[in-house]
């Protein structure tokens, strides 16, 4: 676990004295979760509810010639069947802009196919029946005639000249002159700083390597699940687990052709998302089935469906080239990324281009990215979308450069580390950042200097993530007894309820136990952007701070009325109103003021609706020790340390958990996880036995170090922390394995057969 | 005048490949309108999934953000998150 005393010595954190911020309070969701009382998406039931099942394509690429639902409809207990024909057609250019670009056309066609299927598992119909078993039986009775087409399963295949083209309307964007023919290459993105060619010509040492990664899934434990109910007036309730109830409302309303005001989304507890629940799959199907049947419809995916049809993140390749002077000064960097977007455009390749070299102060950088559609499920966001693959390429190549220069890889990074004022590859100059501090913490950590044994290796790698702000809202309501409810519109996927309560406690000056944080439905709080981008503790936290301050102002006004003094005479200290000019008035506690709320103007509350700016970037550095069995190629992670600039840890235990979780997911990406397809494009590993994610017994305790360089854009110095920790592990593990076996590994995952082939020189 | 940097793809499509431009405007909306006057069609393109960084501060969904005469304004891909 992180040693804050030690960190205090490393970083001169000049923060104020906090009363509640930085304490390790009891998790507000903890008891419910460990006692099984927490209600997740699949736990919801409602009177009269029936059950939905999805019919999915067994083909990776096919035309749908005909769908016959007659037999299914005749089965006793079947109440409704829907196909793509039941949904309104959406204009091909209809896109949501703002938070991210969303093609409603692609989204609608991904939720349920129309004339073509684009991946194994693509939904083609859905059925609702009185029991899950009847629904399953009915799903098997739905007859779909396909004209099977040749799939393209990899970007390399898709980019070939005569490859089958998935979408006739896609021509490569970002290329001039604009191509006339359709292509599987959806777009080309480029970022450039300085004179890259001249800088390479001036370099003493140039290293260049190519790397590959596979499609991996976010791997959340809870499958997608929802329940939808439509009243006679068309008002629709959706109970579901997601990363944004407002996101579910907007997308479902659009795809089903409904007004937003007709849809209410009630968030359930969420059993993991990691970006994979920033999109919808089941909700429109459940709504349409409920509409047709007149009954509430519940739908729960199996793990097989989750893996075949949701997520994953892009597999991709990275070619990195770095030029340096003999003293280790990096003068030029070049990165070319090719990401598989899945069935529809929109891989995070541009973000990969922006993040790969971001930890370094390099004056001449070129990054080019290609977004390529293939016959796999449409890629969804996954922690720090796009960044891990780019970092794998850059951080591995840096390791090679360090070897070429005969330099310590940590010192090479320190020499070139981005600091305040450094221009990132995407052109923006950093504000106060703490990357260098993470490297210094790594250098000082006992892990870095611990001895290694035979067949063991140590790797180090760093990573960057932007972190974002955005629209958030919060309501702070003072109850009659002086306890407080803090309501926000963001699902709690990483401990945000605890953070919200702590920040409200800090402003209100009352014990955090007296504050109840809750995640409200779409009709109980104003709009918030979804939970993602490491934005909630930062942005929604800012809203909570403002709302709590608003409530404090209200409390001061009420105290002034009780005392019959001007409000300017009232100050708020340690959870009490204090009359500064008169000693005859004893301080009033929040409970005493609340008790007289009826007499002073009614309910007491505060609110804030903000579009938060000032998000501080996150940087992390990870150290990994491995041992490789030379006979089997099996890799054991012996020791792992994750170090990150977290700004200010509001609840350190949750922050450490974020670092540990990100590291573990990254280790899985590096060592085991991959989608395995048959030659005809069917996913072969559709369960957690075959899609092997790390479990607790696979790994050592992940040590964490929380470096706190306050973000000047937040009142308490908060930086987002959830995404950065998945960026370094791919390269940290690969660098460690490379050192253990004495050969550079470039292709993930480093599963035993693949690694054995490298060891044996095959 | 503010220094404006367009994404390479946008510059190639609308501004003969020239990424850097000087624009006088008091906010991002006015700045984009000024760019539209020079490069017809660019406003619609910059409204689709494009964030803006004004003096290092990134705004995901730009509109009325203040632009000073010496501001550095860069259009970027919008940043999603996981």
Which helices and strands appear, and what pairs or packs with what?
The complex is a heterodimer of chains A (762) and B (82).
Chain A: H1 4-10, H2 30-34, E1 50-56, E2 62-68, H3 70-74, E3 78-83, E4 95-96, E5 102-103, H4 104-111, E6 116-117, E7 123-129, H5 132-141, E8 143-148, H6 155-158, E9 185-193, H7 196-202, E10 205-213, E11 225-230, E12 236-240, H8 245-256, E13 263-267, H9 283-293, E14 297-300, H10 303-309, E15 316-324, E16 330-342, H11 349-355, E17 365-373, H12 387-405, H13 409-416, H14 435-444, H15 446-449, E18 456-465, E19 470-478, E20 484-488, H16 496-508, E21 515-519, H17 536-563, E22 570-573, E23 576-579, E24 588-589, H18 590-595, H19 597-600, E25 604-612, E26 618-628, E27 635-645, H20 652-671, E28 702-707, H21 729-741, H22 752-759
Parallel strand pairs in A: 1-14, 12-13, 16-17, 20-21, 27-28
Antiparallel strand pairs in A: 1-7, 2-6, 2-8, 3-7, 4-5, 9-17, 10-15, 11-12, 11-14, 15-16, 18-26, 19-20, 19-25, 22-23, 23-24, 26-27
Helix pairs in contact in A: 8-9, 11-12, 12-21, 16-17, 20-21
Chain B: E1 2-5, H1 8-14, E2 20-23, H2 28-38, H3 42-46, E3 50-54, E4 57-59, E5 72-77
Parallel strand pairs in B: 1-5
Antiparallel strand pairs in B: 1-2, 3-4, 3-5
How would you state the average pLDDT of chain A, rounded?
95
Number of helices of chain B: 3
Uncertain segments of chain B are none
| Share of residues in strands of chain B | 25-35%
**N-to-C SSE series of chain B?**
EHEHHEEE
Distance between the termini of chain B: 37 Å
Sheet with most strands: strand arrangement of chain B: 2-1-5-3-4
Q: Report the C-alpha radius of gyration of chain B, rounded.
A: 12 Å
> What gyration radius of chain A follows from the Cα positions, in whole Å?
27 Å
Distance between the termini of chain A: 41 Å
Write down the overall mean pLDDT of chain B. Answer: 94
Tell me the helix content of chain B.
25-40%
Sequence stretches where pLDDT stays below 50 over 5 or more residues of chain A: 1-14
Measured as a percent range, the helix fraction of chain A is 25-40%
Strand content of chain A: 15-25%
Q: Decide which structural class fits the backbone of chain B.
A: alpha+beta
Structural class of chain A: alpha+beta
Q: For this entry, what is the oligomeric state of its chains?
A: heterodimer
Number of strands of chain A: 28
Largest interface: chains, residues each? A-B, 50 and 26 residues
Estimate the global geometry of chain B from the Cα principal axes.
Answer: globular
